Amino acid sequence: MKKVLEKFSKFMDLFGVYVPTLAFAVLFLCFMATMILRYCFKISLNWGSELAVLCYIWIMSFGSGKGLSLGDHVVFSLVYDRCSPKVQMVMKVVYNIVLFVLLLVALPACYKAMMRSNMITGVLKIPYKIAFAPFLYMLVDNAIRSLAYAWKSVKEYKEQKNNSASEEVSA
């Protein structure tokens, strides 16, 4: 099971690290080309701005799960840090289960809305189904990660409790 999780984690890193990195490189190049052409050569580059916005959407959608896994998200540490380990574990579990449920509730509606859309982007004529597909990935990725973190929080609490109990016995 551990090897499967490690392979899954590496697969998710492909989408959570490398795709956003590539999208950021494209965004930066589009931004620079747009600025140079606009201000140096007086040429307006509409597709560059649109591509930069789409890259930003892809960066945020694909990168959010990795940010969540690294703990690089907003937490209310003033309250959390003052709680006992048991209460901290309960807070983590409740937060992650609520997040999981909300993401699962949002998924069907977002999928239906995206599949029904016949809209295309203004300049590049990219269907919204492709442009916003990473949003569905984000919902699924974050739902899976939140469920895993809830399980991990309980497991860590039990290990911490067992370690402190064994230290008391040996002391």
Can you describe this structure?
This protein is mainly alpha-helical. The model has no long low-confidence stretch (mean pLDDT 87). Helix content is 83%, strand content 0%. The chain has six helices and no strands. The protein has helices at residues 2-40, 46-70, 77-80, 85-116, 128-131, 133-170. α1 runs antiparallel to α2, α2 packs parallel to α6 and α4 packs antiparallel against α6 (133-170).
Low-confidence runs of at least 5 consecutive residues: none
Number of strands: 0
Strand content is under 5%
| Rounded average pLDDT | 87
Tell me which oligomeric state these chains represent: single chain
Summarize the main sheet. none
Large-scale geometry: elongated
Order of helical and strand elements: HHHHHH
Radius of gyration: 22 Å
Count of DSSP H/I helices:
6
C-alpha end-to-end distance? 36 Å
The helix fraction, in percent, is over 70%
Structural class by SSE content: mainly alpha
Salient structural properties:
single chain; 171 residues; mainly alpha; 83% helix; 0% strand; elongated
Please provide a brief summary of the model:
This protein has helices spanning 2-40, 46-70, 77-80, 85-116, 128-131, 133-170.
Write the layout of secondary structure elements.
Layout: H1 2-40, H2 46-70, H3 77-80, H4 85-116, H5 128-131, H6 133-170
Helix pairs in contact: 1-2, 2-6, 4-6
